[in-house]
Design brief:
Strand content of chain B: 15-25%
Helix content of chain A: over 70%
Number of helices of chain A: 8
Order of helices and strands of chain A: HHHHHHHH
Oligomer: heterodimer
Bound molecules: adenosine-5'-triphosphate, magnesium ion
Shape of chain A: flat
Helix content of chain B: 25-40%
Largest sheet of chain A: none
Largest interface: A-B, 25 and 30 residues
CATH class of chain A: Mainly Alpha
Number of helices of chain B: 9
Shape of chain B: globular
CATH topology of chain A: MetI-like fold
Structural class of chain B: alpha/beta
Structural class of chain A: mainly alpha
CATH superfamily of chain A: MetI-like
Number of strands of chain B: 10
Distance between the termini of chain B: 37 Å
Strand content of chain A: under 5%
CATH architecture of chain A: Orthogonal Bundle
Radius of gyration of chain A: 21 Å
Largest sheet of chain B: 6 strands, mixed
Number of domains of chain A: 1
Strand order of the largest sheet of chain B: 6-7-8-3-9-10
Chain lengths: 222, 248
Amino acid sequence: MTASVVDLLPNLLRGATVTVEVTVAAGALALALSLPVALARMSPAWPLRVIGTTYVEVLRGTSALVQLFYLFFILPLLGIRLDPLPTAIAGLGLNFSAYASEIVRGAIAGIDRGQWEAAHALHLSRAATLARIVLPQAVAVMLPSFASLMIQLLKSTALVSLITLSDLTFSGQALITTTGRPFAVWGLVLVIYYVLSLPLAWASNRLEARATAYRARPAGAI
Amino acid sequence: MSTEPLIRFRGLRKAFGANVVLEDFNMDIADGERIALIGPSGSGKTTVLRLLMGLDTFDGGEIEVGGVPLSRPSEQAKLARRQIGMVFQHFNLFPHMTVMANVTEAPRRVLGLSNAEAQARATGLLRMVGLEAKLNALPRQLSGGQQQRVAIARALAMRPRIMLFDEVTSALDPELVGEVLRVVRQLARESGMTMLIVTHEMSFARDVSDRVVFMERGRVAEQGPPDMIFRNPSNERTRAFLQAILER
Ligand SMILES: Nc1ncnc2c1ncn2[C@@H]1O[C@H](COP(=O)(O)OP(=O)(O)OP(=O)(O)O)[C@@H](O)[C@H]1O
Ligand SMILES: [Mg+2]
């Protein structure tokens, strides 16, 4: 085996593309689900609260890997067969939507009660208060946490190699079998994961700085 | 009183857990009347305003506005409440919106005013409170006194028939109190609105109101024209309270 680092790269980069695809798609799914789930958990209607809470507790309380296995190996037994890529996106997206919804819920709960009360005294509806007053302020608080959640998601995508999806980790394993150079391969894989996380880390820091500057505003207690 | 009161509290009761805050609270307020609500801390003044505004629900009794009972949610009750505006101790401006947006948001969303109509209304009101130069400022760029004047303009933009003021100067530095009180005084003199003003500023209470209501332990302990309450209170508690405040 005489494969050089340059020979290893194309395979790994193909895997990295899949990793990025899964991260972006699962991240988008998680973010899309996070608001409705958070609102269900905070709803005045108890059935919605129960559904929302159960959703979050089950997804957070069981392993993401087992959830992926479930989708990939059990659903076919029920006649639902998904390809590895949609399975990976759905599995990680659902799993991370539980964490994302907790970020949303925390940010909404963190908004000063006086904001709701002022809106109520102006006769704004609950929906208008949420959309115009509370969420715009809460989003500033959520964004840094979302960025770090996306870094976690990126790292968790390695799990999808176990349902035969040729992501970065899977490509690494395959390369080792063919080249017998674990040192070089795993070293490269580490570097690529790290490089992929850099934009997210940068965004997280930027957003964190902005969010804290925003919170440093005076007044508005109670 | 010959005419029907605009606001009527009847046997109002409110408890937070075991803490009974209002017990058999009764008060009638005539259309256009300006009431100063005074009393020791914890006597339930804020609670009265919050229940009227609908920020909390009450446990018993009734509040009527224009003859409409507010105890059960109904379309009628909602419309009756829509005549009420409130200014808070801590301003509660929307920090992510400019002064202009703070004032135009509710008229546009709730009253359906066009952007131009809402802005014209807001500009007039902000001029009245002396802030026409701050239309595009964010709340955090304003002093407390300026923020509170924006909050007053914001409430007025809904053209309320009834305005509630809850200690609107007690979060302000002393040198900023005057500019806010001046605005409230002017409203009391010129607007014809019904006003319910909770305050610890006794000279302000005296010259802004037609009637002073002294609350204690969730009840009206004494009420009357300002001159009578301040010069010659009949109730021993009122006397002690005023004494304590004046000696501060
Ligand atoms: N959300 C709440 N939960 C529990 N207790 C409350 C709540 N709001 C008010 N209280 C209690 O109700 C009582 C009356 O409070 P309220 O705020 O109406 O008094 P106040 O007359 O406005 O006093 P202050 O002059 O200090 O503002 C107090 O004992 C207070 O602790
Ligand atoms: Mg109070």
